[in-house]
Amino acid sequence: MRAAAVVSVSFASLWLLGAAPAPTAVAVDDASPIYGVTIPHGYRQWEMIAPSQEAGNLDELRVILGNSLAASAYRANVRPFPDGTILVKLAWKRVASSVFEGAFVPATATTVQVMVKDSARYSASGGWGFGRFIGGKAVDAAQHQHCFACHAARVRASDFVFTKLVQ
Q: What is the rounded CA–CA span in Å between residue 133 and residue 32?
């Protein structure tokens, strides 16, 4: 498991430096159903919060980015997160590196997932709005109906956020 985290962190560093492929270009005006969340402009320049990997998605590399408000809240351990916090999770299919046996590199982009903190607008979902995008387009409402339920069932105590800051 440690090796996977190292590969993901290395990948995130490469991506941020421009050495790895970025996710596909996305339309920022395509809003998610239910929440109306869009892909935020300029998110690719945001600070890396952490890599992640899900047991069911071992063939993906993921990294979570945060806007400056998110990064500051993480560093100061401010919870709940302040309104205006935005987190973006980027995911790519992973493939074996052609130059480093046992390492993996990003291939095709799979999703961009967004969480936006606005306590008034999203009061029914713990103050968070959610967006999941494939190829720059928001997925259907049925997929968005599960976002808050999953976060509420597992990470209510951490303001509905799974990701911990990598230091």
A: 8
Q: Residue 3 is encoded by which pair of tokens? A: 């090796």
d(CA 17, CA 61): 16
Structure tokens at 102: 């046992």
Sorted by where each starts, the structural domains of the chain and their CATH numbers stand as 2-158 (3.50.70.20)
Cβ(93)–Cβ(60) below 8 Å: yes
CA distance linking residue 47 with residue 129, whole number of Å: 20
- E strand map for 22-162: 47-52, 60-66, 86-96, 104-117, 128-134, 137-138
> Can you read off the two tokens belonging to residue 35?
């929440």
Instruction: Please tell me the distance from the alpha carbon of residue 20 to that of residue 12, in angstroms, as a whole number.
Output: 8
Q: What is the pLDDT of residues 17-71, one digit of tens each?
A: 343 434 434 444 589 999 999 999 999 999 999 999 888 878 899 999 999 999 9
Model pTM score: 0.81
Query: Length of the chain, please?
Result: 167
CB of 37 closer than 8 Å to CB of 114: yes
Residue closest to 40 by CA, chosen among 136, 164, 142 = 136
What pLDDT score does 29 carry?
Answer: 57
Query: 93: which strand partners?
Result: 60
Instruction: Confirm if 43 and 66 have CB atoms less than 8 A apart.
Output: no
